[in-house]
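Assess this today:

___
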Amino acid sequence: MSISTSVLSDLLKSLPYLRPQLYFKASLTALSHAMEDQVLAATLAQPLVIASFQRERFYRQEAHRYLRLALRSNQIYVLAAPETDFINSSEHYEKIAFEPTDGLSHEWHLVVIADNYATCLVCRENLGSIAKNKQLPELSPNLDIDTARRFEGVWTSERGVSLKAAELLLDRILVYRPELASKINEARQRFSIGEPRSHSGAEQINEYACDIDTDPFVQRLVTYLQASQYKLHKAYRSIAAQARKERLVNSISTAIRRSLDPHEVLQVAAQELGQHLEACRCLIYRAQATDSKAIIEHEFLNPGILSVRGQTWELEKNSLFRDIVQQGEGVCISDTLNDPRVNNSPALSLIAKKFAIRSWLMEPVFYQGRLLGIVELHYCRMPPHECQPGELDLVEAIATQVGAALIQAEAYANLEELNQQLEALDRTRSNLIAITGHELRTPLSTIQVCLESLASEPDMPLELQQIMLNTALSDSERMRKLVQDFLTLSNLESGRVEWHPESLTLQECVDLSLSRNRTRSSTEKPPKIKTQIAENLPLVRADGDWLVEVLAKLIDNACKFTPPQGEITIKAIYNSHQMVEVTVADTGRGIEPNRLEIVFDRFYQEEGALRRTTGGTGLGLAICRQIVNGWGGEIWAESTGKDQGSQFHFTIPIVQSSQEEKRTKVKSR
């Protein structure tokens, strides 16, 4: 048997006297429910029921009815093309999942055969009506265009037709579930399905006919007709409500397109929504899931209602806000006087009483699962306001628009920040060109002059030759440090540095850094340097080479900006946060308070790139910050202003294990 064939076509071929009729889906739904209700109302047990639903989504709408039908019979078969989780199974009743390419995917069948009656509905969908319906404009979500789908087929209570339809469908079921053969044979034998009949054609008579209670069938049809009239009336009202909703949403969308200012957009949204829903008060404010409070900035207010603009909403004690965060959906309270959520919360009770809130609606503003804000509607007059589904849908739609406005504003702010970063990057590039041009050109020029002099004047006195060589060597060392700083910062920022933490005594690292700084040019008299490091200071855990590098650069920086008669102090204390705090203080030039943070920027030079009296690239403090951040510490600068000296602080984690500390002490002995 080909599974691509139509059951309706096979039925019409077997019984050529049948004349198919045209049915709308609304009619088929009414007939199907009436046939099912007749089974539910019957006192006789174990009818055969075969239902084919085209697609799984149509079956899901009726699944609850078939659970009730399964209590009446164990001969119930449901067919559908799977879309999600519809599979062959025998739970409650027999499910048959047919291929989407099967002809059944375009047909609607319901066959009921009992001992005293039989009825069947066998239809095939008119595919032309589907294409036509898809071209119709969607006037309202409440208007069910699906009910206008058309089917061609047969609906009859003639037993012979019903038995033939059952035979065709049972054959199709066996194609997909051959294991049901014994159960299907039982149904065939009981109802004489597939056996030759003594009557034929239109003269066929139902020999089992008897008095059947058709009242459930008739009542169902009448009820459905009445419901259809009500739904039509409701649809017309929905069109008007939908038009008002669309005008409101469009007005807010227009405000979003006209302005990138979120304050303007949120005020328009609060005004329009409050007026449309006739609320006494409408609030829109920003709030995130972790916020403990929010300030009310945008409000619509009716005359005679107390304003809450500028008030601070305590969110941490607001159980309604916490419910929204946890459940991800809005909260609607019809009467605050009788609602336990308000009565059991002193904070909410106080708010409701102070601002005369009788009915309270809170709707979250989400974007991609992230809470951005809250929309609140307050009704302060009697009687309490019952929120209608249409109103809730409208508030949710406006909340979506508000979320779009906030994200748009956030994106604009991010764009502004990105532009600032690009400007800073451009300044960095300019500084890099200026600094490298100056720092490289100057020593290169000096080296070139010295070497040319040595090469062109062989009779130059030895003393002058030595001066030339020393100068060339000094400037070549200056160039080497410049290139080394560039490479060091690049490796630190890109994460290509391998850290080797170890337990260290800070005094030893300070001594090493001081010895490195003594190699500075002998022509410069360094300021006095003293250390104040406690003997009982705990061991620190860091990479020794990088710790010495930080100390050396901070000391070198202090020496550059401190006169020879000045003083540099190196201190270290245990700050009780599992950290040792090191301070390099000087009595030198000092730093303006507004520059205490930017001194750590790359290529920052206080005097400008091309007019400095001190050497260096402006990379030293940037390198120090990268190193300190690498071991989990912090670094910062303090100064009271120009010529008031400066202090550079950084923290180092201490060794946590007491056993490791003991082992270190043993090794030192």
Observations:
- Residues 389-456 form the longest helix (68 residues).
